[in-house]
Write a structure and sequence with these properties.
This protein is of the alpha/beta class and about 450 residues long. The protein is built from 18 helices and 17 strands. It binds 2'-monophosphoadenosine-5'-diphosphate.
Length: about 450
């Protein structure tokens, strides 16, 4: 946390309600990482947005975000509105200019950047958008601006879909029930309705064939992390993301505009991990080499905190109906890693759970991304010698099969050397476990 002084710049977000905003996490983390003397605060504006913004101009507030319900109304008090914000019809970022603020929209550039970092290209692509509210319309504008070829827009109320199609020629409006008239092809799919926000919400379109046409899917909802839409894509193995990456990058782009800099990909990932922790993070994920004590520490932690305990390997054994040894014998390691990734994806719905992962789980980037969304990551670190003593009589670990103790020692040391950097960089907390009992380690966590 920065030390606030007379020169500290003030940034903030105006809206109502504003109590649950995640934006301070983004901007205050960036200030800290970049050593910028500024602080970002939520500002609740009861109803008079004009008076509020004029007051903030006069008070020298350096930069602002704007959220619901002021994204349109704020325009009337600005010195200028950027072309894209005008086209989208909503402003979410205010940048100081002579005598006031100019309004921008970083939501859609934020979504575009989130997709770009995932390697999802829009140019020349076909898309399916579900929903026809303000968010869906903005997504259609983005798709058009980034060169998408065609958009099928599905909505319960066809009139709203038709209104968007009138403005954006590449849009074909359809009723939800007409989803099966979309030609068989590969699409980028966007879920832009409010369905999924409530726990009892069900998938709007039920057919698997519909979702199988997705090459990638994005749900603008980020809380809960897994909506029925995301769950279906996970089930079908379609790569996907939720709206948290859009929230992240709209904030990052706003920050870049305020301070005239570029936030690196690595730094963005740090901020993303902070967001995940704040939003989803009441779970604890234990990582480390086999024999590092993940299971015993995990059970101890779960018991003392009243949490649930899941051992990822045991979960896989149950799911597959055979032992890890058998999976390695009759399938490939690749097969095992795919099942592991699938199971980790399922973990994103958990809360109040201690999750012990297999030693190799964090080698895949996809798993690291998904696990950092799940909760606080703790690396239980142990010396090769400690591990050797713990695992040498254990026959259930296929990667440790060795002829002699010497060979086993070598294998452990080599594997630890290659995995250690992954564990260290990824973890939120590293604990040296050699001289500690499981309950002492649980206490430290
Ligand atoms: P936003 O501005 O965030 O996009 P919105 O304008 O309220 O929010 O839009 C909500 C979207 O969710 C609309 O597309 C709405 O469909 P209708 O236009 O037919 O109302 C969609 N939606 C909300 N509840 C729905 C439900 N139960 N089934 C299907 N669509 C739903």
């Amino acid at each position: 946390m920065i030390e606030i002084n007379g020169k500290t710049k003030i940034l903030g977000v105006i809206g109502n309600p504003i109590e649950h905003t995640l934006s301070p996490v983004i901007h205050n983390t960036l200030c800290e990482l970049l050593g910028i003397d500024a602080v970002y605060v939520p500002i609740k504006v009861e109803n008079d947005i004009v008076t509020a913004v004029n007051g903030l101009v006069e008070s020298g507030v350096y930069g602002l975000n704007v959220t619901v319900p002021y994204k349109q109304d704020v325009m009337k008090v600005l010195k200028g509105v950027d072309e894209l914000a005008e086209e989208i019809g909503a402003v979410n970022t205010l940048v100081r200019c002579s005598g006031g603020y100019k309004g921008y929209n970083t939501d859609m550039p934020g979504l575009a950047r989130a997709l770009e970092t995932k390697g999802v290209k829009l140019s020349g692509k076909k898309a399916v958008v579900i929903g026809a509210g303000g968010a869906a319309r903005a997504v259609c504008v983005m798709l058009k601006n980034y060169g998408a070829e065609k958009i099928y827009l599905l909505n319960r109320n066809i009139e709203k879909a038709k209104a968007i199609a009138e403005e954006i020629p590449i849009v074909t409006p359809l009723r939800l029930t007409e989803y099966d008239s979309i030609p068989e092809d590969k699409y980028i799919m966007f879920q832009c309705t409010s369905v999924g926000l409530k726990p009892e919400d069900e998938l709007i379109i039920k057919s698997d064939d519909f979702y199988k046409m997705a090459e990638y899917g994005y749900d603008l909802i980020y809380n809960p992390a897994v909506t029925p839409f995301i769950a279906k894509l996970n089930e079908l193995g379609v790569p996907n993301d939720n709206g948290l990456t859009m929230l992240l990058y709209q904030g990052i782009i706003a920050f870049e505009m305020w301070f005239g800099l570029k936030v690196s990909r690595d730094m963005s990932e740090v901020v993303y991990a902070e967001l995940c922790k704040k939003l989803y993070g009441d779970n604890i994920v234990l990582i480390g080499y086999m024999g590092s004590g993940k299971t015993s520490v995990g059970k101890e932690l779960a018991k003392s905190r009243g949490m649930r305990f899941i051992d990822l390997d045991e979960y896989i054994v149950e799911k597959e109906g055979r032992s890890i040894n058998d999976i390695f014998t009759y399938e490939t390691e690749e097969y095992f890693r795919n099942v592991e990734s699938e199971v980790i994806r399922e973990m994103s719905t958990l809360s109040n759970t201690v999750i012990s992962t297999g030693g190799g789980a964090v080698l895949r980037k996809e798993n690291r991304d998904n696990l950092s969304r799940v909760g606080h990551v703790v690396y239980l670190k142990a010396d090769p010698e400690t591990i050797l003593n713990r695992v040498k009589d254990d026959q259930s670990r296929p990667l440790l099969k060795s002829e002699s103790e010497e060979e086993l020692r070598k294998r452990i040391t080599t594997m630890l050397d290659s995995r250690n950097p992954y564990y260290e960089i990824f973890a939120d907390q590293v604990i040296y476990t050699d001289r500690l009992t499981p309950s002492e380690i649980a206490e430290i966590i």
